[in-house]
Automatic annotation (TrEMBL):
Native organism: Ciona savignyi
Keywords, sorted A to Z: Kelch repeat, Repeat
KW rRNA-binding (keyword) present: no
Statement: the UniProt record of this protein carries the keyword Transcription regulation: no
Gene3D superfamilies in the record: 1.25.40.420, Kelch-type beta propeller, Potassium Channel Kv1.1, Chain A
InterPro entries for this protein: BACK, BTB-kelch_protein, BTB/POZ_dom, Kelch-typ_b-propeller, Kelch_1, SKP1/BTB/POZ_sf
Lineage: Eukaryota, Metazoa, Chordata, Tunicata, Ascidiacea
Name recorded for this polypeptide: BTB domain-containing protein
Source domain of life: Eukaryota
Pfam assignment, any one: BACK
SMART domains (alphabetical): BACK, BTB, Kelch
Domain BTB: 64-143
Length: 621
């Protein structure tokens, strides 16, 4: 027996020795430089193979070293995999004191090194989904399971699970789910999801109030919606009706009547709607009578509406658009249209037209009320047919109203609104008598014009803008030549003063205030031969200094100009080098000092005006 055994051992030793000798000779390191560089290979399927292997071990209960317990369910798992997937489990399984009890209960029978760990407050259904995800990378989510999955995923700090739940919930937002999703977002502090659900609800509110979901809103939800300017409704009456329906669903909600009614914008309802639909509600007369009186007073004093200091008089919209007003084309046809352009400047809609066409007029916007002043209704000798009329457009009701005429007929003049004083100021211009030096002020609350301090010289075709409640007026035509003057009017002291002059005299130009600077754009100069002014000048009122910026690419005189989204828009006008009215829309970015051509008007217009208005959603759909 021993001889045979020795013989076998000898053979085994010989075999091993022979193998080592053989492999040693074969696997000697290559000392000379190889012409083939080292190559790294990556298996795209290895991760799946690894997970599949772990999952197979789990199903066969092989090498599982801990059991998770949730409710009546038990889940045998592998510590290493859990620690790799979850910071929560990694911290649990790598603690220095692994005999410390789990959780805050020092008397707990479970320690970090226990073979079984009970996870209290965790749903077994949620834990089942999370364990499946850690072993397969797959996560089925439904509206019925998402809250349990979120709760466990957040507890175990598994970010992919939270991301998948977020993606699912955002995709699931619709009329019948948005309230539930808002409540889920509130519970789990998911601000992005909450914002997305509210955005949907605000945009689809007319459809939402027709569903049976309105009653599920909490007071906080209702309050948020009623506060928002983005609530897209056809009328404020719809908002009132929805709020009334919500209150009447549950008697306990009557405790919120006053707070919610304060958020309804009753002044935006026509008087007939207030009388027929609002006054008849009992609690409006007993608990909210002052709100009805406010709305009634608003309608009784139409001229003062722009200066009523109330959040309830503001349009429910944040949609601010460019509005092109009037102007004359290359055939001398004068427009009476108000064109509202979309954000892309590719299309426009029409607001109610003015009674007659107008050009060389002025416009001013005071608290989102549009005033159109003076100008000429026909294309004739400059100033000969100028008018003194003033009309006001109210986007709240999409209506026009006649207000007091100016004291003098004016064309080629400038008007600015100074909100701090609730006043409009009309400066200079020209009429059948000639150029004007007079300045008049419109008192909104009195619906009356009165003269204030005149300019030193008569001027027309100038422009102006407001900076820190002072009116700055530049250029224009005065004393037989184009002016380089920069004038500053202080309404508090009713005085004019001269500031440093323009570097280039000009008229028919545009002037826009952007933050602490005043930009002068376009226009023309010259006497016998008109020349486009391309230089862009910027003025600092604080330092009384001028700086030259990037020139405009094409001459634009008698153009419309205004500020939107921190860019200066210059629209249409007359190009002297081309000898025609143009339809070009250009923008200037003060931050980048760059000009860009961004669109076109339907036809060339000069003597037009441009402004921005915030319009109700139903007017710009």
């Amino acid at each position: 027996m021993s001889a045979k055994l020795m013989s076998k051992n000898s053979i085994d030793s010989l075999s091993v020795s022979s193998f080592q000798t053989s492999t040693d000779s074969i696997l000697q390191p290559v000392t000379r430089k190889s012409e083939f560089p080292e190559t790294i290979y990556t298996s795209n399927s290895y991760n799946n193979i690894l997970l599949s292997g772990f999952n197979a071990l789990r199903f066969e209960n092989l090498l599982c070293d801990v059991t998770l317990i949730a409710g009546n369910s038990r889940f045998p798992v592998h510590r290493a995999l859990l620690a790799a997937c979850s910071p929560y489990f990694k911290s649990m399984f790598t603690r220095d004191n692994q005999n410390a009890p789990i959780g805050r209960n020092e008397g707990s029978k479970y320690t970090w090194f226990s073979e079984s760990i009970e996870l209290r407050g965790i749903s077994s259904e949620g834990l089942k989904h999370i364990v499946e995800f850690m072993y397969t990378g797959k996560l089925p989510i439904s509206m019925q399971s998402v809250q349990n999955i979120l709760a466990v995923g957040r507890h175990m700090q598994i970010q992919p699970v939270l991301d998948f739940c977020m993606e699912f919930l955002i995709s699931a937002i619709e009329v019948n789910t948005c309230v539930d999703i808002i409540h889920i977002a509130e519970v789990f502090s998911m601000s992005q999801l909450e914002n997305s659900a509210y955005k949907f609800l605000l945009e689809r509110f007319p459809d939402f109030i027709k569903s049976n979901q309105l009653q599920k809103l909490t007071y906080e939800n209702m309050s948020y919606l009623l506060d928002s300017n983005d609530l897209k409704v056809m009328s404020e009456l719809d908002v009132f009706a929805a709020t009334l329906k919500w209150i009447m669903y549950d008697h306990s909600r009557q405790a919120f009547i006053r707070k919610l009614m304060e958020k309804i914008r009753f002044p935006l309802m026509p008087p007939r709607e207030l009388m027929v639909h609002v006054n008849v509600v009992d609690f409006m007369r007993t608990k909210c009578n002052d709100l009805l009186l406010e709305a009634s007073s608003y309608h009784m004093l139409p001229h003062s509406q722009p200066i009523v200091p109330s959040s309830r008089t503001k349009i429910r919209s944040n949609d601010t658009r460019l509005v092109v007003l009037g102007g004359a084309d290359n055939t001398d046809e004068v427009s009476n249209q108000l064109k509202v352009f979309n954000k892309e400047l590719t299309a426009y809609t029409l607001l109610p037209s003015m009674d007659s066409g107008v050009h060389s007029h002025s416009v001013a916007v005071l608290n989102n009320f549009l005033y159109i002043l003076g100008g000429q209704n026909h294309f004739e000798e400059r100033g000969k047919t100028s008018v003194a009329t003033v009309t006001r457009y109210d986007p709240r009701f999409n209506t026009w109203m006649k207000i007091a005429n100016m004291n003098e007929h004016r064309a080629g003049f400038h008007v600015s609104a100074i909100a701090a004083y609730n006043r409009l100021y009309a400066v200079g211009g020209v009429n059948s008598v000639g150029r004007l030096s007079s300045v008049e002020c419109y008192c909104v609350e009195e619906d009356r014009w009165k003269y204030v301090a005149s300019t030193q010289n008569a001027l027309c075709d100038h422009n102006g803008s407001v900076h820190r409640d002072k009116l700055y007026v530049s250029g224009g035509f005065s004393d037989g030549h184009f002016s380089d003057a920069m004038l500053c009017y202080n309404p508090k002291h009713d005085i004019w003063e001269r500031r440093s002059p323009l570097q280039c005299p000009r008229g028919w130009h545009s002037q826009i205030t952007v933050k602490d600077k005043i930009y002068i754009v376009g226009g023309n100069t010259g006497i016998n031969k008109r020349v486009d002014v391309l230089e862009t000048e910027v003025y600092s009122p604080d330092f009384d200094q001028w700086t030259t910026m990037t020139p405009i690419s094409m001459g634009q005189s008698e153009a419309g100009a205004c500020l939107l989204d921190n860019k200066i828009f210059v629209v249409g006008g007359y190009c002297w080098s081309a000898r025609r009215c143009i339809k070009v829309i250009q923008t200037y970015d003060p931050e980048k000092d760059e000009w860009e051509r961004v669109g076109n008007l339907p036809r060339g217009l000069a003597g037009l005006r441009l402004c921005t208005l915030t319009l109700p959603h139903h007017l710009v759909r």
